[in-house]
Structures are given as structure tokens and as C-alpha cells.
Amino acid sequence: MRPDPHANGGDSAGPAAAPVVASWAQWWTATGVAFRASWRGLAWFGLVYGVLYAISMRLITSANPLAPLWPPAGVLVAGLLLLGSTPRWMIFLTSFVAGRVAGQGALLPGVETLVLIVAAWIEARLVSDLLRRRRGPVITFGSVRDIPALLWATMLAVSVNGVIVGAISADSAETFWQGFITSWIGGCLGILLFTPLLVAWVRPPEVIIASARRSARLLEAVALLGLTVLITRLAFQGVVLFGAIDVPPYALTVPLIWAALRFGLRGVTLVSLVITALATPLQLEPTATVLGGVTPDVRLLRLQVFIAFITMTGLVLSAARAEQRAAAASEALAADALVASERQLRQSQKMEAVGQLAGGVAHDFNNILAAMLLQVQEIRAATGLAPAERRTVGDLNDSIERAAALTRQLLLFSRRQAKEERLFDVGEMLVSLGRLLHRIVPESCAFTVAAATAPMVVRGDASMLEQVVMNLVVNARDAMPGGGALHVSTAIVTLSGDDCQTLAHVHRELRPGAYAVVRVADTGQGIAPEHLGQLFEPFFTTKEAGKGTGLGLSTVYGIAQQHHGFVRVLSSSAAGTTFEFGIPLVVDAEPALSAAPLIAEPVITAPVIAVPIAEESAVTGPPVPTAEPRRPTILLVEDDPDVRRMVQRMLERGGVRVVSVETGLEALARWQEIAPVDLVLTDLVMPGGMSGIEMAHDLQSIAPGLRVVYTSGYDPEYDSHGGLLEPGVNFIPKPASADTILAVIRRQLGDGWDLA
Fold it and tell me: What distance in Å separates the CA atoms of residue 738 and residue 608, rounded to the nearest whole number?
């Protein structure tokens, strides 16, 4: 018999646990916080414990000195599992008071009762601790392995409790073992039935019913309970149907299976509780014959075995069904993830294919533009041109620069444009760019620029970020043909893992963290929902023919990819659109960002690289005689004949002796007759199976220290060169002006050469 309440405890981990404190005041404060955080759970725990304890005590009579099962044991273990963040002493005090009040006993127990309380405490602690050690901190009984773990932990803990109780209450060895067996089974049943019951009804259950209508679920639950009551009464009352058919107790497996399949753990525990409540008084009657047994002790023992059988069967069935549902849900999630991955892969492949196409077009187009630009500059340098002719040549030069800007957008989209990385402040960049932005926004639009005062230092290409702002502002302007409001601002945004997951379909390499963000908001006509998925695709535009290339947002996307950042539509409706572009923030950057000044008024033109040339220092004293400058010899390797011819003419006018070849293989074959060579100017992408870098490595192995300058309109392997190419130092993007080419060559050769 279990006549006394079981004391309870819980893990100390969690925000409500009582910490180690240095004074009584601190201890009292921490205790008050813990109590306020858990008083509702403790109140419900105490109420359930007291009610079930009172019911259990009513089952104990002089004719039946042992309760068929002891629910307070299950409530105690459930309290430990569910109130894990509550200090143990609070749970112990709650269970002690509830048990003493429900049992109408003295608040201060005697020695024997105190031993029973300690034994109950040890039992509950053993079960909860063993379960958590084996199955983890959160027990849901939603796995088949949870049920055997509960069983063996319960059997061990109840055995310890039974030995302690028997040692102080049994008169002889015979009475000890008789009481131990029945009490042991009753304690096991109390835990096996009521612990999962309370856990299932307190913690959120899994989705258990396919029906979406609450009324249908309620009707099904009523039908299940009705069938359970009917079969239990027919079986344990020994009713014979139609004069020949009796209902055996194992027919109760029908509602158990129904409950497990349709209602999960909640349904199984409720059905088991109904069977136990109805079968116990019927089985303990002197005339009961269903389970057999002459004496009350034997009938009670057989009833306990039967309840244990149906309880374990129901628990295993519900856990198996829960695992099946979890597996099906995982498969569904995996299938959804696979579909999303396939969609993302197709989109990525499409963007990559278009990027390759765009890069290839840019390569050929840049070669044409390079030759045209040098020819136009040669004409402009000629004397004797009439003013009208000079204006015509200037217009032609401007057209070439606009065409170069278009190819630069193609290269930015395909992520093949070289970056000139440095540290810069996004706010300062926006303020510097503001004057130019004001000129491209019409007076019908109320235009404002608001840069954050806090530093927002990033590492990247400032000119590319300026290109982003320009493109977004132009898009916003075009979305408001009748006027409106356009606002550009900066902010620091922290992306979480969920944010990165949301953006993964566009930016797969995005990482959580702080980003410097530029927002461009307009009050224009908005973006149609069906167009949102195509915004960053190249050549997609909703503008009229001739009013847009469809490369603006795709260029922004390419720059975001190059800078490991993101671009997204923050909001879009008939009332306007807000775009957000962000790149990773550099934390703890020095205030002095870079010696290079920010571009005050950038113009979208050909990527002409201005290389600063060090000014000669003033030298005092008598002049020092210097050697006569020598003319350098440059090996020009270029497969495009027009570009090769124009670059050679330009270099020769600059005082350079030029030897030109078409491919890298030809350069290697003629090296002995060409040498000595002071510098190699080579294209990166050439026919014949040898790139410019491969040729340069072979030549440098023959002539160590040979200087090399690379040039290209497009290099599909640019990202793989590992920082070897540095624009303005040893790399010249096409098209480039004669001044730019000569400036890079001067930097490479150094002083002492005769260059115009």
C-alpha cells in the first residue's frame, strides 16, 4: 500500500533555477523570481496530485488494504519531467502539502511516514533521471524506444521504493513479499499509465487526425470512448451475447488500436485510464470470474497484470504510429527541399548560362570597342581637324564609351568584372554620390538622401556600389513618370539564419551577420506579383522597347554576388517599391579607411583606369647627369588583328619598339629571335590552347624577372587567378585608352625609359 504522498523534484537548470547566492537577501530574491515564473505549473501539479492521492486512498479499505495502482507515483514523475526548470524544493513542498491535505493527515508526519515520503522521492527521482540520461532532457514518449526505457526505469525505481517501504512496515518475510509484489505492480502501473497521460496532455501533441473539422474529431472521440466503455463492461461483467457469444477482455485491443492510430498518445492513455477505472471495481467484486482468482489478492494481481498488458500495448502502438508520422513528415519535408533545390539549381544553371553568354558577347564586343577607341583617339590627336569634325569625333568617342558601359554591365552580371577592393564608408560614398543623383532625378520627384551618421565600413569596389545606387535610382525614377517621392538611405541590418534561408533561392552563399544596407524607396506604380520572380534575370524588363536593356537589376544582382551580399525587394505595392542592397559590414574598422579619395561624381563610362604617377621630388644642389633614356622592347600578344594593329601603332608612337604575335604558342616559338624583351603585353584569352597566364609562366621560367601586363575584355577564369591580376597595376580591362595603357606600362617598367 502507498498511503503517503511522493515528494517531487526537478532539474535546477533553466532561468527559474535557484542560483548560488552570497546572501539571504539574494537567495530570497532569486526564490521569489523562481516562484513567480512557475507558480501556475506548481498549482496545477499540486491540484492533480492531491485529487489523485485522495482517490487512491479511497480505494484502500480493510477488505482491500492495497490500491490496485498508485496514480500519485505517475504524477510525481510527470512533475519532474514537466517542471524541470522549477527548483526541486518547491515541487517537493507542493507535493508534500497536497498529499497531506488530501490524506487528511497531520502536516508534520511521524518517522514511518517520513520514511515513506523519502522512498517516494527516491523512486520518482530515479525514474526521471534514468529517463533523461537515456532519452534526453525532453521526454515525449513519441518514440518506440521511450517505452522500454520508461519500463525498465520504473521497474528499478519501484523496486527500490518497495524494499524501503517493506523493510519498515512488514511483520514477517511472508507479509513482506506479499505486499511487495502487489505494491510493486501498483507503483509500476501508476507510473506507466499516468506519467505518459500527463506528459501527453500538457505538452503539445503531434498532428493526430487527418480530419480538418473539429466537430468530426469530437464525434470520433465520443464514439471511441463509448466503444471502450461498452466492451469493458461487457467483458468484466461476463455478459453473453445472443446466448452463445461472450466478450473476452482482449477485445479491448480494438479501441486501443483505434486510439493509437487516430489519436496518438493522448488517445491511448485516455482509453487505458477508462478501462482501468471501469474494470477495477468489477474485478474486485467477490463474484468476479472474468480474470479468475479466488481471493481478493489474486484477483487484484491478475487485474494489475491485465492493465499493465493493455497499457504497454497501447503505448508501443502510439509511439510506433508517432514515429511513422514523423518519418512521413520528414519525407515530405525532404521532398519539398528536393523540389526547392532542383528549382534553385535550374535557376542557377539558367543564370550561369546567360552569364556565360553575356561574358562571351562582352569579350568580342570589347575587342571591337578597344580598336575603335584607339582609332578615335588617334583621330582626335591629329591636327587640322575642323571644329565640326572634332565634335563628330567627340560624339563618336562618347558613343564608344556608352557601349563600353553596356559591356561593363554584362561583365558585372556574369561576375567577371575585376574588383578594386578597398575599405570605404557607405554613408560617405552616398553623400558624395548625392550631387550626381540629384541631376538624374527630375524636379517632379521629391528626392532625398539620408546617410546614417554612424560609420558603415565595408570592403569592396566603391565604383561598383555606386553603379548599384545609380541603377536602383534610375529604376525608381522610371517607375514614377508622373512624379512622386524617391528616398535613398543607409542602415545597418543584421541577417539571421532564417533570413539567409529565405534569401537562399537567390543568394546561396549568404551568411548571417551585420550588413551595410542601401535602401531605395519610391512611390511609383510598384511591381506586379507575377514579375517578382524575374526581376534579376538579364534582359527582363517591363519598359517599352528602346527604353530599357533589362540589365540594370541583373547588374545589381551580379555585384551583390561578387561582394557576398544580397539584394531584395523589401516591399512592393501600388503605393511604391523599396529595394534593399547590402554587403557585409567590416567590424572594428579604423576611421582612416583608405588613402584613395572617394569618387565625387562617378560617370558610367568605359572602365578606364587612371593610374597615379608619382611626381618628381624637388632636388636641390647641382644637377646630376643622367643616362640617356632607352627605348623599351615590348612583346604584344593579341589574337584580334584590329586590336593588335591599333595597340602596336599606339605603342610605337609612344616611343616603344613593338614585336607583335597572334598567340602564346607563337610567342614561345619566336622567343629566341625576339629576345631581349623588357615587357610582355598579352591578352588573357587566346586561341591555340594556351592562355596568356600560361604563356607568361613559361616565358618567366626562361627569362626570370620578365615583366608582364595582362589585358582582356572577358576572362571566364578570372576568379580563379587568386589575386594575380590587379587592375591598374598589371591588368588592363578592355577597352582602355592609350593614356591608360601607357600609364600601366610606365608603372611596370619604372624610370629610365623613353616613353611619350
Answer: 10
505 contacts 340 by C-beta, under 8 angstroms: yes
Residue-wise pLDDT tens digits, 253-306 = 899 999 988 888 888 989 998 998 888 888 877 777 778 777 777 777 788 888
How far is residue 120's CA from residue 670's CA, in Å, rounded to a whole number? Answer: 97
pLDDT of 569: 84
Helix (H, G, I), strand (E, B) or coil at 111: helix
User: Hey, which bits of 229-365 come out as E strands?
Assistant: 240-241, 245-246
692 vs 709: CA distance, rounded Å: 10
| 423 phi, psi to nearest 5 deg | -85, 135
The one-character DSSP state at 738 is H
Rg of the chain over all Cα atoms, to the nearest angstrom: 42
What is the pTM (predicted TM-score) of this model?
0.48
Distance between CA atoms of residues 389 and 141, nearest Å = 89
Rounded CA separation 403/162 (Å): 92
CATH architecture classification, 633-749? 3-Layer(aba) Sandwich (3.40)
**Domain 418-584: assigned CATH number:** 3.30.565.10
Task: Please state the domain extents for the chain.
Answer: 1-204, 209-382, 418-584, 633-749
> How far, in Å, CA of 11 to CA of 323, rounded?
27
Long-range contacts of 587-591 (CB under 8 A, 24+ apart): 587/514, 589/423, 589/455, 589/457, 591/455
CA–CA gap between residue 31 and residue 325 (Å, rounded): 42
Cα 120 to Cα 70: distance, rounded to the nearest angstrom: 11
- Which residue is it, cell 561598383? 464
Taking the C-alpha atoms of residue 458 and residue 422, their distance in angstroms, rounded to an integer, is: 8
Reading across the β-sheet that carries 484-495, which strands appear in turn? Answer: 445-450, 484-495, 513-522, 576-584, 566-573
Query: Helix H segments across 441-585?
Result: 462-478, 497-502, 552-562
* Locus of grid cell 542592397: 581
φ, ψ of residue 245 in degrees (nearest 5): -110, 115
Rounded distance, CA 719 to CA 725, Å? 10
What's the residue count for the chain?
A: 756
Question: Taking a C-beta distance cutoff of 8 angstroms, is the pair 4, 113 a contact?
Answer: yes
pLDDT at 322 over 90: no
The pLDDT tens digits for 415-443 are 555 556 788 899 888 888 877 788 778 88
H or E stretch at 399:
helix 387-413
CA distance 454 to 445: 28
Q: Which residues contact 81 (CB under 8 A, 6 or more apart)?
A: 128, 131, 132, 139, 195, 199
DSSP helix/strand/coil, 311: helix
If phi > 0 it is left, if psi is from -120 to 50 it is alpha, else beta; for residue 650 that is alpha
In this predicted structure, the answer to whether residue 541 has a pLDDT above a threshold of 70 is: no
